[in-house]
Amino acid sequence: WGLVQLATGTLSDRLGRKPAIASGMAIQALGVMLFLLLEGFRSWALAAAVLGLGTALVYPTLLAVVSDIAEPRWRASSVGVYRLWRDSGFAWGALLTGLLADAFTFSWALSFMVLISLGSAFYVVRYMSETLPSRR
User: For the whole model, what pTM was predicted?
Assistant: First the structure.
């Protein structure tokens, strides 16, 4: 996803932030779902690639949203606060997923991740305003 985000970040500059974020979250959900449905190294490599594509759509675009809406004098601080919450979300998400896997099953925990990602995609479609200045 690291290399692909160079292209997806540019794509969000042209097509808008909202479509990139919503489709990226849905593609991430599909990638995690493929881990549940498929078996074997090649299949999981495909699932990882799909998950990476979704992440490449979301990762730089969410940061661009913060930059789009933050007043220039506060932009650096806004990006820092966003990164604090994003990075802590990685830690809390991993802990929650581990707790769910321990309490139920690994498949149940991954299914919960799929639902959270799909829910996020639907939330973006329904409630997010486009932040790309040329598309507002």
Answer: 0.92
